[in-house]
Amino acid sequence: MGSGGIAMVGRRAERKQLSADALFSLVRSGLAMISDHRVGNTEISLTDAMMSAFGMFSLKCPSLLQFDQQQRANENLQSVYKIDRVPCDTQMRTIVDPVDPEALRPVFRDVFRQVQRGKALEQFVYLKGCYLLSLDGTGYFSSSKIHCPSCMKKVSRSGAVTYYHQMLGAALVHPDLKEVLPLCPEPIIKQDGATKNDCERNAARRFLSKFRQEHPHLPVIVVEDGLSSNAPHVRDLLAHRMHFILGVKEGDHPFLFEQVELRENTGDVTDVEIRDQNPKSDIRHLITIVPDVPLNESNQDLLVTFVRYIELNEAEDKIRLFTWVTDLKAHRGNAWQFMRAGRSRWKIENETFNTLKNQGYHFEHNYGHGKQNLSVNLALLMMLAFLVDQVLQRCSRLFRAAWNELGSKRLLWEEMRSIFYHFSIRSMSELYEAILYGHKNRRPEILDSS
């Protein structure tokens, strides 16, 4: 489709195991390990149905109906995504609905390990030889009418009922990298047999346990917002051998801030001032470190290091304030890294959730709710497609070249779908090459209607 000699140069530059086609094959192999819940002969396999949903999110189709209507792309779905039989929208919903969401977790782990084997994970190491693991909750479905047994619900004062789904997202982040590496989210849904709603704190406890089972030796520093800096969660983190940098607010931790003030009055703190790295900037960075202070009055045995960061913009007379607690030792030599690690928590919001909501993934669109697990499974498959995209963005020169050629993700997704639906392609690499090096337009073939 493109000029072959140049295309081959691009192909050789790729890390083969982290190319789009290799990752698609890995995902399909993982989905093939999920046991089919149906008995007897089936027209469309569970693997084909799951892989079709993954392909829909990989191509950023805005709706399941549009994906279903593009029947002319079936040949490409077979060659690129290795789907033998492409289900219609109703078939896909029916087949995917009963699947246990936990069955998708190993597929995320497979992609993660491929990144690890490809030496790309090492680029995310940041502080004290650890990876920064950002956790945060987000919602992706809300309705006053549509619901399923796992939906949570809230009732307003007027008696109106709202049904909704949320998830606890998790991603490895790095202050200097645009990419994130999302892990399998933990659904925040009504648990079997439960009468009360699930919550982010319970989801975090489940996530930490599963994470340590899957990655027993991975050194991480968990970075979270102020809702997480409570004693039970801190003890859970320590029990799972995880370091932490957690946001704290004075209104939530009055005893902690009183102890910090007492220490400051006696001069028993470390103050660090760092000039901005831009020599033309008037911004000053003021960091205060207070070790061994109790987290709160009820847990005075739980000692943490308090870190306060003030960004002072004297030219614009603006001040930004951040405060954290950590189990690690902060000092003058690593104060700047600590500050950047704490602020990297926002990457789970900006580079993950906002990207999914605003850059073509249609995260909050209802692709189908189902009667059991469809809504959750589709959200997980979308996150899986996002994980693959992030790996490609970080590791695939061919992907980045195609993206740079078009200048924006939205244009890239549109061009990918256009080529996918109008041309016969054998691989995703060939599609990227068509974007990068061009392709010959074909005259339409007029069919004989006689």
Radius of gyration from the alpha-carbon trace, in angstroms: 25 Å
Could you tell me the number of beta strands?
12
The residue-averaged pLDDT reads: 91
Tell me the span between the first and last alpha carbons: 33 Å
Question: What is the structural class?
Answer: alpha+beta
Outline type: globular
Helix content, binned percent? 40-55%
**In oligomeric terms, what are we looking at?**
single chain
**How much of the sequence is in beta strands?**
15-25%
Give the ordered list of helices and strands.
HHHHHHHEEEEEEHEHEHEEEEHHHHHH
Number of helices: 16
The major beta sheet can be summarized as: 12 strands, mixed
Unreliably modeled segments: 1-13
Summarize the entry for a quick read.
With 450 residues, this protein is α+β, with helices and mostly antiparallel strands. 41% of the residues lie in helices and 19% in strands.
List keywords for this structure.
single chain, 450 residues, alpha+beta, 16 helices, disordered N terminus
What can you see in these coordinates?
This protein is of the alpha+beta class. The protein contains 16 helices and 12 strands. It has helices spanning 4-12, 20-32, 46-58, 64-69, 74-81, 89-96, 105-117, 200-214, 231-239, 254-265, 335-343, 347-358, 374-395, 397-406, 409-422, 428-437; strands at residues 125-127, 130-143, 152-155, 161-173, 181-182, 186-188, 220-224, 243-247, 270-275, 283-294, 303-313, 318-326. Strands 1, 2, 3, 4, 5, 6, 7, 8, 9, 10, 11 and 12 form a 12-stranded mixed beta sheet that branches. Helix 2 packs antiparallel against helix 3 (46-58), helix 2 (20-32) packs antiparallel against helix 7 and helix 15 crosses helix 16. Mean pLDDT is 91; it is low at 1-13.
